[in-house]
Amino acid sequence: MEPILVQTSFGEREDAMKIAKLLLEKRLIACAQITGPGTSLYWWQGKIEYADELILVMKSSRACYAELEEIILEHHPYETPEILAVSVSQGNSAYLGWLAGELKS
Q1: What is the arithmetic mean of pLDDT over 91-96?
Q2: What is the model's pTM?
Q3: Domain count, the chain
Q4: Region 34-46 average pLDDT
Q5: Angle (CA) 66 69 70, round 5°
Q6: 28 CB neighbour count, 10 Å cutoff
Q7: Residue 41 sits in a domain of what CATH number?
């Protein structure tokens, strides 16, 4: 199993909760953390914008990523949501074992 962290952002906690629960039910993530709000500054359609956002960080595996991304894109309220996946090169072996056991095979 190749563990990954996947991150996306939301303007509303309810949207983050909805997608996190959906992905947990489908066993595409083993754990989700919602943090914030914080202020995001970004370029959008030629202008600098800012918004208060929450960050959803999910623990998953490379094998689950394609389906996970598809579901986020289908249910996310943003036109172009941030979806970033980062490989996990090391971690607590007991935690990584738990993670692997909770994900769809």
Answers
A1: 97
A2: 0.94
A3: 1
A4: 97
A5: 85
A6: 24
A7: 3.30.70.120
